């Protein structure tokens, strides 16, 4: 299996809606840092730019995941914390270093050839993924100069973009979830395992500057360096020993780029130092292995290609299928399963449209067991809504919180398995084989070996679906290209010669670890290290017989001397097997001697072997010697050819004797062949008997395994019943949760409408004075936006003169008593009554405060008006020259004129609030006055010119003429009585 489970994402994902392919090579002189976040990220943006040193030479792009309907104020806020120019992105704006750019919330933003592109979004607001969108564009245009940072936020936006940046050799930082106000987005990014640094936001700028100052390694120089090549081989050995996977057949450029990325992340500059670091840190070997397996995959990646499959090629594939047939599909490099499920969905829909009853088998394989486990779980983040239509989401997925799970009927059609494409046997009789963007990581030598296997695995007229960057050149006799752009091909009906599959499996054979010695180079004596090696070479050339080094199967690994008299190329596909190349007469003895030497582990030899050459018969001595050392050739055989003279006939014999001698020789030869045949037969019988014993033993083991499986099956059935019972309980609980959820939704709706209908500005704060929520009316007093949720109220500007709101809130939280204050706006046009109460949970736990603002401007205006009216009335009463008393409904004095106090010699300051009959120490307790005033109170009549005579103890006799007037006020205030007097002395 290739290291990239679903291959490199070629910036054609559905999320872009338009393919972004850089035509001109962009200016890569500076890095671009993309900062993504949603809820609670404003504090992170502020902290990042507060701690960012000046003169970094980078450009910064802020990508907030905000509601497009809200007016963005991000640019104005960030300007407070940085001296760099802060601009909101417009279409075709050029990106420059030492600038900060803010992505608009109502557009999709991409980067193309150093310019920003604004695109109208196709997804609804709730399904848009602006961070993923920009991160992917940044990765493909800036590659190793792309840096992504994920800050606080809810949801999974950014996870796909993180993988994309990592695949293109960029760097990724994530805010430490423990420091994030909302940790869902950072945790989802960390789950991808493609993150370089997990840091608090305050530490990100310094790490960023240190990373940017790392000297870049030149991969080309590394490849040309013999020392670096040796180091890479050591790295391959470390990975193979740790994981069992060999990456030596993968493209070196990609390998070097991945290693370079890991070195930069650890700030290691020397290649040898990194090799030592790997040897000392086994976890780094696993991390490098995972990075070599990095795969950016998604549902319906390259939407146009999948549309072609859906509309054209899959219906053609199903035309020749009958009811009850199987449709077999292989998805190589399935990664976490998105592509496998996408193919299965298209197949299911195509079968339904055809009206046939067909069965679907999809085999999805990958080299990474962790990815396979995730694919089997079939649970994906909510960001798949950008790629899967709402109809398919509803039909094939079940939504659980913020995740989507593949439904059981679709999941059961896909079988996931760990499988190595260049080692394990292929799945056969396939109707469709997809291997997308996987071969681009393999060397040309390995690709040439894989295509015959693909041909062998497919049925005639089967489809091969490759990535857009891969090619089938060199195999026109195997596949016919149907679509050039999206690399969809048709398997030809002609069979591939078996010889083209003879080397499968390609690795891990019985002699996989054997490394044949290098062919000696022709060099001069001046280039040799010492004289002894030159002498050894000369002696070998002059005196050593023709020699081969082979394995027990006859494969030739090394040739010394001229072997043309004994071997010749066989007809058909070229091969280097000594049994197929042996000349006539040599095959019999060669097979015998090689088999004996391989089995007995001892030297064997045959003399006077007759070989028919182009110049007649040649007698040869053949010697086969097993090699036990050195380790590089252990297990191989040394095959030596020595020419022998033709045996001379004996002199003096007659012709008849010569003919008899020839017959005897022929008989001896036949007897020798018969003996060899008997020996081989006996050996075969013994091997067969041994195999039968092994088969019997295997059969017994299988029977035992079958019994265990039956027992396991019974346990499984029991577990199934328990699971069914548990499932019913879970369904009941789920129903209860759904009911509770509906009640909660209704309660939330009721609460929202209640808060909106009150038209009272309300702000909910936590114990740290951070904003938890607010009503729309609160924005008229404080400069609040939805992005301010999570920020401290002390950071929010208000239009009130009062600056001690935080002190009042803290006082309420400390004393747990409400507090009310009347406040005026700065423009002195509005008055508000601010009331602070403790925020109590259902279990009576204090979890913050509630601050309400009631507009009391009209009340204040009325209060001012009443005060002015009262003052006006008091002045009128004072200016009246005759005695006048204003009484309330209980005949208590409200106010008096100065003439009244002077006439009856009373103190004005002591009159207010006294009962009429208590004035002058009871002098006004006059029965006639009581009768008159009772009529005024009870019968609601007015007194006009009523004469009252009374002898006052101090003043003496007085005759008074009384007039009253009952004055009605508002409903909430009682009436008042005006009592006017004309006083006459005796």
Automatic annotation (TrEMBL):
Domain annotation CheR-type methyltransferase: ranges: 233-492
The keyword Lipoprotein is assigned to this record: no
UniProt-listed Enzyme Commission number(s): 2.1.1.80
InterPro entries: Bact_Chemotaxis_MeTrfase (IPR050903), CheB_C (IPR035909), CheR_C (IPR022642), CheR_MeTrfase (IPR000780), CheR_N (IPR022641), CheR_N_sf (IPR036804), PAS (IPR000014), PAS-like_dom_sf (IPR035965)
Annotated stretches, region: Disordered: 643-664
Record-annotated CheB-type methylesterase domain positions: 26-215
Active site: 38, 65, 157
Catalysed reaction, written as an equation: L-glutamyl-[protein] + S-adenosyl-L-methionine = [protein]-L-glutamate 5-O-methyl ester + S-adenosyl-L-homocysteine
Keywords: Chemotaxis, Hydrolase, Methyltransferase, S-adenosyl-L-methionine, Transferase
Biased composition (Basic and acidic residues): 654-664
Alphabetized SMART domains for the sequence: MeTrc, PAS
Stated name of the protein: protein-glutamate O-methyltransferase
Source organism phylogeny: Bacteria, Pseudomonadati, Bacteroidota, Cytophagia, Cytophagales
């Amino acid at each position: 299996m290739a290291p990239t489970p679903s291959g490199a994402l070629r910036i054609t994902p559905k999320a872009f809606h338009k393919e972004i392919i850089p035509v001109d090579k962009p200016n890569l002189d500076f890095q671009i840092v993309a900062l993504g976040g949603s809820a609670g990220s404003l504090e992170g943006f502020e902290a990042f730019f507060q701690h960012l040193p000046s003169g970094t030479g980078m450009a910064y792009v802020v990508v907030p995941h905000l509601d497009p309907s809200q007016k963005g104020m991000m640019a104005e806020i960030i300007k407070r914390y940085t001296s760099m120019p802060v601009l909101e992105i417009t279409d075709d704006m050029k990106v420059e270093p030492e600038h900060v750019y803010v992505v608009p919330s109502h557009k999709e933003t991409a980067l193309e050839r150093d310019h920003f592109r604004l695109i109208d979004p196709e997804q609804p607001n709730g399904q848009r993924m602006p961070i993923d969108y920009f991160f992917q564009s940044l990765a493909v245009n800036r590659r190793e100069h792309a840096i992504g940072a994920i800050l606080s936020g809810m949801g999974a936006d950014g996870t796909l973009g993180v993988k994309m940046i990592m695949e293109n050799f960029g760097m990724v930082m994530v805010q430490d979830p423990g420091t994030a106000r909302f940790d869902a987005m950072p945790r989802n990014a960390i789950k991808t395992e493609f993150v370089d640094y997990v840091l608090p936001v305050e530490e990100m700028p310094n790490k960023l500057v240190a990373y940017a100052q790392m000297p870049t390694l030149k991969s080309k120089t590394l490849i040309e360096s013999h020392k670096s090549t040796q180091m890479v081989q050591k790295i391959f050995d470390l990975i193979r020993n740790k994981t069992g996977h060999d990456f030596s057949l993968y493209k070196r450029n990609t390998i070097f780029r991945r290693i370079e990325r890991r070195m930069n992340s650890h700030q290691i500059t020397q290649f040898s130092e990194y090799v030592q670091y790997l040897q000392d840190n086994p976890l780094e070997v696993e991390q490098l292995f995972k990075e070599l397996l990095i795969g950016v995959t998604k549902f319906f990646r390259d939407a146009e290609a999948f549309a072609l499959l859906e509309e054209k090629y899959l219906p053609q594939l199903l035309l020749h299928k009958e009811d009850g047939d199987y449709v077999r599909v292989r998805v190589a490099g399935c990664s976490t399963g998105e592509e496998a499920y996408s193919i299965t969905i298209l197949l299911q829909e195509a079968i339904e449209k055809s009206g046939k009853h067909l069965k679907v088998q999809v085999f999805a394989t990958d080299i990474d067991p962790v990815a396979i486990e995730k694919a089997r779980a079939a649970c994906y983040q909510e960001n798949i809504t950008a790629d899967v239509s709402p109809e398919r989401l509803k039909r094939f997925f079940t939504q659980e919180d913020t995740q989507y799970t593949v439904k059981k009927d679709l999941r059961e059609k896909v079988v996931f398995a760990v499988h190595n494409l260049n080692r394990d046997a292929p799945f056969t009789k396939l109707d469709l084989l997809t291997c997308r963007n996987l071969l681009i990581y393999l060397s040309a030598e390995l690709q040439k070996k894989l295509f015959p296997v693909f041909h062998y695995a497919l049925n005639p007229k089967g489809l091969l679906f490759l990535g857009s960057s891969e090619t089938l050149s060199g195999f026109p006799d195997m596949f016919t290209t149907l679509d050039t752009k999206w690399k969809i091909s048709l398997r030809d009906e002609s069979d591939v010669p078996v010889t083209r599959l003879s080397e499968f499996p390609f690795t891990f054979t019985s002699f996989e670890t054997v490394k044949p010695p290098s062919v000696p180079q022709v060099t001069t004596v001046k280039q040799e290290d010492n004289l002894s090696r030159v002498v050894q070479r000369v002696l070998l050339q002059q005196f050593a017989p023709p020699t081969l080094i082979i394995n027990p199967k006859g494969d030739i690994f090394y040739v010394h001397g001229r072997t043309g008299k004994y071997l010749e190329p066989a007809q058909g596909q070229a091969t280097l097997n000594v049994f197929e190349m042996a000349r006539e007469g040599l095959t019999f003895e060669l097979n015998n001697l090689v088999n004996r030497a391989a089995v007995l582990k001892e030297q064997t030899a045959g003399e006077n072997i007759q070989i028919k050459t182009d110049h007649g018969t040649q007698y040869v001595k053949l010697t086969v010697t097993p090699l036990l050392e050195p380790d590089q050739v252990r297990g191989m055989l040394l095959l030596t050819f020595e020419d022998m003279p033709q045996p001379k006939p004996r002199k003096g014999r007659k012709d008849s004797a010569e003919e008899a001698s020839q017959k005897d020789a022929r008989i001896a030869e036949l007897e020798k062949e018969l003996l060899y045949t008997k020996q081989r037969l006996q050996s075969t019988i013994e091997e067969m008997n041994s195999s039968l014993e092994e088969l019997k033993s295997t059969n017994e083991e299988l029977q035992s395994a079958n019994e265990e499986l039956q027992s396991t099956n019974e346990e499984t059935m029991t577990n199934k019943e328990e699971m069914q019972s548990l499932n019913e309980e879970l369904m009941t609980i789920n129903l209860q949760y759904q009911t509770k959820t509906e009640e909660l939704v209704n309660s939330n709706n009721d609460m929202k409408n209640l808060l909106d209908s009150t038209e009272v500005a309300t702000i909910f704060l936590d114990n740290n004075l951070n904003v938890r929520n607010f009503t729309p009316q609160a924005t008229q007093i404080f400069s609040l936006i939805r992005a301010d949720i999570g920020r401290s109220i002390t950071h929010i500007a208000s239009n009130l003169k009062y600056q001690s709101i935080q002190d009042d809130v803290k006082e309420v939280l400390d004393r747990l008593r409400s507090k009310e204050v009347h406040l005026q706006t700065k423009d002195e046009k509005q008055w508000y009554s601010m009331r602070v109460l403790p925020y109590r949970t259902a279990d009576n736990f204090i979890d913050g405060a509630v601050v309400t603002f009631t507009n009391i401007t009209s009340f204040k205006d009325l209060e001012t008006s009443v005060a002015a009216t009262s003052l006006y009335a008091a002045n009128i009463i004072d200016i009246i020259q005759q005695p006048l008393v204003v009484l309330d409904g209980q005949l208590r004095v409200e106010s008096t004129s100065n003439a009244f106090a002077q006439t009856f010699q009373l103190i004005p300051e002591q009159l207010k609030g006294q009962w009429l009959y208590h004035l002058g120490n009871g002098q006004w307790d006059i029965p006639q006055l009581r009768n008159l005033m009772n009529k005024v109170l009870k019968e609601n009549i007015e007194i006009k010119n009523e004469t009252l005579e009374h002898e006052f103890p101090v003043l003496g006799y007085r005759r008074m003429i009384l007039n009253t007037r009952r004055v009605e006020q508002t409903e909430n205030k009682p009436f008042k009585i005006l009592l006017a007097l004309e006083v006459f002395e005796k």
